[in-house]
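hey so u asked for the seq, here:
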Amino acid sequence: MTLTLILPGLNGSDEGHWQRFWLKDDAESRLVEQDDWKLPKVEAWTRRLEEVLAQEGPAYIVAHSLGCLLAANCADSPSASLIKGALLVAPCDLSTTENLHPGAIHFGRMPTRALPFPTITVGSLNDIYMPLESLSLYSRLWKSEIKNLGQAGHINIESGFGRWTGGYGLLSLLKKKARAHSRTNRSLSQGSRAFTAEGDQSGQAIEKRGLGFHAT
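ran it, structure tokens below
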């Protein structure tokens, strides 16, 4: 069984939020609980996510808002190898979010590295936490496929997102991408081993010919 880890953003996801419904609907999902939802610190949140990944093994991630940046911050972490794929829903722009919640967020800088695991980024045309041009920019930097839901706000309770069954379909799509990604990596690995073996054999043959030459 491969778990789906649910990563909320600032203040957690209250009852009625689609992430809470996801936890009820999907028996293979688990909330990554943080000690402090109101004053998020990237070091503490990252440490907790890494602990859960180490305990549970490979998992998919379904993140919302600041939780998306938490997942993206794993790009340079050894824990990235344990993330099979991430559904990044309504990622927030840090500078915009800090202006809306002054003094509450301590999350460093926006992650800009290409993510080493398959992702789908879900956004909208009118998210106050992420301007559309920024959504496009970070999706490109993360090498993430983007799905735009139109006039969907921050894809939360306030914008009418309670139980969101469309998200389940997006996770299924992500899993297909992850399987294709895994097959590609296996093929590349096998090709690399075959190339190395061929190179070793060629080197041995040359060495034998060289020894034969010096022996005459």
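The CA atoms of residues 122 and 147 lie 5 Å apart. The mean pLDDT is 90.
lmk if thats what u needed
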